[in-house]
Design brief:
The chain contains 10 helices and 12 strands. By secondary structure, the protein is of the alpha+beta class. Helix 3 packs antiparallel against helix 5 and helix 9 runs antiparallel to helix 10. The chain starts with 10 loop residues before the first strand and ends with a strand.
Length: 335
């Protein structure tokens, strides 16, 4: 099927080849200031090492949020490249299947949150290039609230909650749990650390990694106990609470993949969407974030910094929190 999107932005669609590239060209009918670039080609390069080589040999000019912290650090030492970094809004989380016999108990979900120590992950895995998250909304959002329950690493509290939930230790294990992940290298390393941390609370974590299409299909149909993913875009506005957490938005009607259901949360989501007064809306969403941080359909992990690597011939590139490609409106290439 031919896809020819039409828009009124600074660039117009030219072509797309599946798993190869997307090409756009300057829209000379654009109402605003015209881009300096005549065209842009987005290459599809799944392998991280290949992406780095493309930049180093100059066959690519820009890569946005495309590298692990370790690889970005190596590229920063290349005199022909520049690495830009700024706080971002991409949000990483763990999501639970609330229909699961074990995970439907909020005490178990809270115990898992207490058992996870984000500090070592942030320092070793991300080299400090993330900010601990307290909400699905980023701090840049007008509706963000940090006045919510927090789950600092505490194995004693985790154990007490699991005991109260009816899962005592037997030979060092309370119950097994399966985590599904993609084959992304950083995600698999994170899962390995989580496996060690949860073991200290008596949870035997099995990690199962799948290629992207299979992983996404399993998540969409609820074939998981818990998984890790990221919200990339869309989470700066509280309207996204409906798609992620309203009980009317179970797949395929929305992204409430864990089948979270709380009548009070539903009412707040509905009220927030129809309320016009900004201060009242902010109060509504603050209460909603408190409920979600208590019920824990998600365990909040972190907000990723935006990291863009580009060749020295690129000029005028600036970052924005969402990590999108708006910089293409102003960027230019040296001769």
């Amino acid at each position: 099927m031919s896809v020819k999107p039409v828009g009124s932005g600074p660039f117009r669609f030219v072509s797309a080849a599946q798993d190869q590239d997307v090409v756009v060209a300057r829209n000379d009918d654009y109402w605003g200031e015209k881009p300096k670039l005549s065209s842009v080609r987005f290459l599809v390069v799944p392998d991280e090492t290949t992406r780095a080589l493309e930049l180093r040999k100059g066959s690519a000019d820009v890569a946005s949020n495309a590298f692990s912290a370790d690889v970005a650090a190596v590229l920063a030492e290349d005199k022909n490249l520049e690495v830009l970094r700024a706080p971002g809004t991409i949000y990483a989380y763990l999501a639970f299947n609330l229909r699961d016999p074990i995970l439907r108990d909020v005490r178990v979900r809270q115990a898992i949150a207490y058992a996870i120590d984000r500090g070592p992950l942030i320092e070793s895995l991300w080299r400090g290039q993330v900010l601990p998250a307290d909400s699905i909304l980023p701090p840049q959002s007008w509706a963000y609230s940090s006045n919510v329950p927090h789950y600092e690493h505490n194995l004693t509290t985790a154990g007490q909650l699991l005991d109260a939930a009816g899962y005592p230790l037997h030979n060092g294990v309370r119950f097994p749990l399966t985590m599904k992940t993609s084959t992304d290298a950083t995600t698999r390393l994170m899962a390995a650390v989580l496996q060690q941390q949860l073991a200290e609370a008596g949870i035997a974590l099995e990690i199962r990694s799948f290629e992207a299409a299979t992983f996404q299909a399993d998540v969409a149909k609820g074939a998981f106990q818990f998984y890790s993913l990221r919200w990339i875009g869309g989470n700066q506005d509280p309207d996204m609470f409906e798609a992620a957490f309203h009980s009317s938005k179970f797949p395929p009607n929305g992204a409430n993949r864990g089948h979270y259901s709380n009548p009070r949360a539903d009412r707040l989501i509905d009220e927030g969407r129809r309320t016009l007064d900004p201060e009242r809306r902010k109060a509504i969403y603050a209460e909603l974030q408190t409920i979600l941080a208590t019920d824990l359909p998600y365990v909040h992990l972190w907000y990723l910094d935006n990291v863009v690597v580009h060749t020295r011939r690129v000029h005028g590139l600036t970052l924005n929190p969402s990590g999108n490609y708006d910089f293409l409106e102003t960027v230019d290439l040296a001769p």
